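Q: Hi! New to this. If I give you a protein sequence and the SMILES for zinc ion, can you show me the bound structure?
A: Yes, paste them in.
Q: Okay, here:
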Amino acid sequence: MASTENVRLYLAYWFQLGKRLVLDNGKEILLPKPVMEGNYYSQQFEECWAKVDQAEGKNCYLEGTDYTIDSLLSPRWDIHPCARCDMPIATVESGLPSLLCPCSDLMYWPNLDLPIPRPPVSTKNHLTRLKNRLNNS
Ligand SMILES: [Zn+2]
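A: Thanks. Here is the predicted structure of the protein with zinc ion bound:
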């Protein structure tokens, strides 16, 4: 099961690549900008998250994926780095192969010429390893 903090981080990473959040099955589509202010999530991000929270993640999903935020918060799911691009992606915990990464429809990705998405420094979680790998690359 992905923690709330990891789901927030997952969204923050993809927002930095321009992936949008679909709310209420498409009634609203959000892309908070900026995602971060200094070392913290931006107010825009927090407002976006408040809507996800209010809907309990139901019918909310990241553009290009077919799993909802509430499924990410359910026991079968977790978040791991993508084998191709190191971005956090949702996986089913049963040991099945990773699902499609949203990177599959991004052209020219991974692209080392672009700023690599980063987590807010204040975040502490098991994606720290991922963060370190990104910082070292
Ligand atoms: Zn990927």
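A: The chain has a mean pLDDT of 84. Let me know if you'd like me to explain how to read the tokens.
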